[in-house]
Amino acid sequence: MPEKRVLDPQEMASTDVYKIVAGCIVPRPIGFISTISREGVHNAAPFSFFNGVSHNPPMVCVSISPAYAQAQRKDTLTNILEVGDFVVNVVNEDLACAQDYCSNYFPPEFDELAGAGLTATSSRRVKSPCIEQSPVSFECCLHATVPLAESPYTLVIGRVLMMHVRDDLLMPNGRIDVGRLAAIGRMTGNSYVRTRDSFTLKHDTFEVLPSSE
Q1: What is the CATH number of the domain that holds 85?
Q2: Strands ordered across the beta sheet of 42-47
Q3: Does 2 map to a domain?
Q4: Beta bridge partners of 13
Q5: pLDDT tens, N- to C-terminus, the chain (213 residues)
Q6: Which residues pair with 146 in a beta bridge?
Q7: Is residue 30 part of a domain?
Q8: Contact 18, 176 (CB under 8 A)
């Protein structure tokens, strides 16, 4: 087995650290975050420093960096802080190009959803819109923001208030048909991964989860 190289992130350029972190923590789920500004402008942007952190109550987190090229806070974070909510939309294979388009920089007055040819639909509990083309959307209210010490990132934690799940994804046992979901994950650089190739180990975590009854 080849030897491991020991790397000290404190002695490396931040871009080199990013390449290691983003290249090894894979695949990463993509949180396609839709928000609305105080002026009523829709915004959408994908984030791969994203994950679920609790199911009881359901909560998600996303870590948001500044828009480095413009040296300013991203519109997503501004909208979340000012409006107090956001929607997480799952990215499947059909949404790959649209979410990539929305990753570009646009001024605050630009509607990324319209620009990407996506449809904004009204949420039930929050002001931010759902993306109709997404197979799953989680309406979230802002639970907490945590500026990360010595980091330009802000960790955003949201509580899921409503879940919109495409009907054909729900199996009789309550689980999601991941093949039909066809979610994609972020790898490194411009690379993504499909989730249709999976394998199963004989172990069911759900058998040891406490019942809500």
Answers
A1: 2.30.110.10
A2: 42-47, 31-36, 85-90, 136-147, 154-165, 58-64, 50-55
A3: no
A4: none
A5: 999 999 999 999 999 999 999 999 999 999 999 999 999 999 999 999 999 999 999 999 999 999 887 778 999 999 999 999 999 999 999 999 999 999 999 999 999 999 999 999 999 999 999 999 999 999 999 999 999 999 999 999 999 999 999 999 999 999 999 999 999 999 999 999 999 888 888 877 666 666 655
A6: 155
A7: yes
A8: no
Residues near 170 by Cβ (< 8 Å), separated by ≥ 6?
A: 176, 177
Q: What is the CA radius of gyration of the chain?
A: 18
Tokens of 117: 């040819």
The whole-model pTM stands at: 0.94
d(CA 145, CA 140): 13
Decide if 40 is inside a domain: yes
82, 88, 129, 140, 145 from 159: Cα distances, Å: 16, 11, 16, 5, 12
**1 belongs to a structural domain:** no
Alpha helices in 31-74 (DSSP H): none
Expressed as residue numbers, the domain containing 180 is: 25-207
Q: Which residues pair with 152 in a beta bridge?
A: none
141 three-class SS: strand
Give the span between the Cα atoms of 160 and 138, in whole angstroms: 6
How many domains, in total, are found in the chain? Answer: 1
The rounded distance, in Å, linking the Cα atoms of 22 and 49 is 9
Cα dihedral value 60, 120, 95, 159, nearest 10: 0
> Residue 207 CA to chain centroid, in angstroms?
28
One-letter amino acid for residue 41 of the chain: V
